Give the backbone structure.
Amino acid sequence: MTNKIQNSPKQILIPAMIALAAAIGLLAGHKMNFKNNDLALMKVSQENGTEIQKGGRIEEILRFIESNYVDTLNQNVIAVDAINHILKQLDPHSSYITPEEYDDHNEKMEGVYKGIGIETLKLRDTFYVLDIKDGSPADESELSIGDAIITIEGDTVSGNDTSYKSMSQKLKREDNGLVKLGFKSLEKNKVLSLNIKPDKITIYSVYDSYKLNDNTAYINISRFNSNTYRQFLKSLEKLTTPTEKINLVIDLRDNPGGYLPEAINILSQLFPDRDQLLTYTKGLNRKKQEYRSTGKPFYEIDKIAVLINGNSASGSEIIAGAIQDWDRGFIIGEPSYGKGLVQEIFPLNNGGALRLTVAKYYTPSERLIQKSYENITNDFVADTSSFKTKILQRDINGGGGIFPDFEIEDIFNQSCYQLYEYSDYFILNQFIRNQSTELTKSQISEDLFVQFIKDEFGYDATGLSEDCTMDTNVYLWASYQRIIDSRIAFSKILNENDPQIRKALDVIGDKKSTLALLSDED
């Protein structure tokens, strides 16, 4: 990321000094544990640390400002701006997390949130139910897809400017009591009410898994939260037995990373031998930490293909890097994001947190996959050295990110994001228009989709199929199946025509490939 500033040294120095003092004030008295820890993006306990001391020229400047400035100051705004200014001098991944953002961060990383188990979409001024989580309180209630949420505890949330965040907060009910919900039934076309008790809802990071053919399984991993490894094992349990050999296609496209141990645990299931180096981390204030395979896989995984794209980062790159470096399988798709920095989370007294880069991680061949970046105080240039794989001595590139063995464009290219952004709105509109979730392909065609976007958002989507590598009608039908059926139904439709999936099956099925040479296949 480029961030060039043309200001004079004086213009830069004074805000930086004030920023540092404000940040020190925010951090003062907070006790941090700086022990080397196994977790990336982790919570750090507030024990056994030392307090940061205030004083010196920076605090003197602040005292002058507080005593003499012409107007009153918003201390909270100053503190947030100050700490953000400091962190911009570091790297692209160190950041300040506000108290509101910290709650959301913890939910995503812990893989659990409190609610009734619905996903909503706001069309025009009304919230509609778009998804109901299996086994959730909503799943056991009268709510159905397409129903409109009208009131929560007597407060009207539709027909006005109520935000998603506000509506979601009303459904949490911290005292564990019942929530009274008023909703308009799509099928019955009348307003009904129910009392429902919020509960803990699991956030799935292993969205879908199924067999591509008799001996090849497909598993999609969207991120690495605290439930990912367990969900990965459950997926394998559904697809194979401990004594049956199975090939595996792991889809890490658009996976931004998350908890490092979850990625390591999954890798240990893919390497049958004990003590193989999977990755290692080191930093100025962190000793070198190696992560090795346990030698205790529960299933017989034979050939492996890993799918990546430009949004595959961090934990995704750790998995892809280890697979590639040890010639354990092939990497297919597009070059990955290039995030080779490890962050830890330091909670702050104000309820927010500091996400700070503490180490760099390396693949088994010693590749640092962090891409280049520049800021005011630090220019980092990626390592472009050439490397060799550990077994077959194949050439592999440094320079930031993981470069696939077979580079194939992702079927979901940048132009397709317009489909992603608008398809759910369109399908929901068709539910409302037809007063039913039972639709035919003719009711969710590209022509109707284009007209809806133009009427609703003022955007001309004519010729969208020409720019997007994905067939619009196919994607709309897949999205419809996801809403009324499951994520697996969605994936099966799209994967049928996915060139990366087809390449993965070709490589796995090719008995002359290095995958075959390295497998135990007779």
